[in-house]
Amino acid sequence: MKVALLFLSQSLNKLIGFLFLPIIARSMTLEDYGTYGQVLLTGNFAGRLFSFGLATVIFVFYAQNRGKEASVFQSNLLGSIVIGLIGSLLVFLFSSEIGLFLGNDKLGPLLKVYAIVVPFGIVKTTLDSTLIYFSKIKTSAVLLVIGNLVSFALMLSCLFFYYSLYNFIASVVVGSIFNSLLLAAFVPRDLLRWKGMDLKLIRRQIWIGFPLGISLMLGLVFKLTDSAIVSKLLGVEQYAVFRNGAIELPFIAAIYSSVTKIVLPDISKLFANGQMLEIVKLKRRIASYNAIFIYPLASFLVVFAEPIVSFYFSKKYVESAPILAIYTLILFFRVVNYGDIFTAASKNFQQVLIFLTAIAINVPLTFILVKSMGPPGAAVATVAGYALLLLLLLNYSTKILDVSIHAYFDFVLLGKIIGACVLGIISSFLIYHSIGGGAGFCAALVMYSTILACCYYWGDIFPVELLEAIMLKKKLGAGLSVE
Asked: Among 302, 328, 472, 473, which is least packed, fewest CB within 10 Å?
């Protein structure tokens, strides 16, 4: 049950983080919480920049080098370690300059500690990709949950018993190291038998992975542009407010990341075999399944952002509500991964150009809207830029597969889903404002769920085939297996 199991794991991991986040936000001052966010912002950027796409491109090399999996793994791992150490050193050396750029003198010393995370984070993704490729989904799922529980336990200990921001960041570093070592202990033993250093294979993976890594880095630049500009122009406290609006619910994030992780190896294998029609069928089915679950959750989140934020983060962060409502609109476009076709087809340079185009438009737009609207302006710019980016990726990927955009989506089904969401939102919104408070919110949630369930049943929307496949461990077709 690949998708179901990984989805459960991702959901648990996201849920742990989701429950932990308000504890941090409520316990820290706005300044400390904003500084912690800036540390993660910088570290995530460095990790993505120096990953070189190796954890993703390894799927393609495994598929193309049958019988040489050990050499592929060892060369990929060695490349990840070396590049990660270079990235770590650069973060350490330029930590003071980064703090100066973001206008936070506390940031430099903290980044010197957090720099250690960079190589371990890169290696962790390679190890996890390897476990998934070799069908060790259950092992990966359990290890990630255990690793995150240990990490959060360390962070909670520092937060309540040994608190200083420095100690807290140190606990994050220790947790990251533990996660990487835990995954390494369960890699298939055949991959660990030393085959000698294959410099040619290392160069090939880096050469093919480099443009993908640049694409991933540009994707992160695109995603973090709003955070960096808000932090730079409005200060650390306004950044803390913005950060708590620019979040995803764990269930929504788990749906997308679980399906994406499982499908990428299948996409690579189908493309290598020239089965383009099967890829299109697979993408269409994934888009439909994701929309069935994501659209209702996203719709409710947009309309009821204020009571959700007030309950989740406390009234201290009520200004984050409009940011959350706007930011959630991204999810309506994010029902399928538009970039995996580029990876399978080795068209990563084209993907880089698309990201550069979107960033060139998004950065000045974000500057203008942040200055005129404050933090909500950054969210508006991100949604507009994200829509443009996905449209460009979708358009080019359909050209690679030689199909029309309509082939990706079942527009009749999407129309039914949107209609059900609109009907449920109108009814629940009226109930909420009639009753008010916590009771009104609970009544609205029950009303929305009931109407949605009825519409899904009578409108033949509910994915019965998916449920049967999960229960009976059948194939869904077009390469998507739940076994």
From this structure: 472
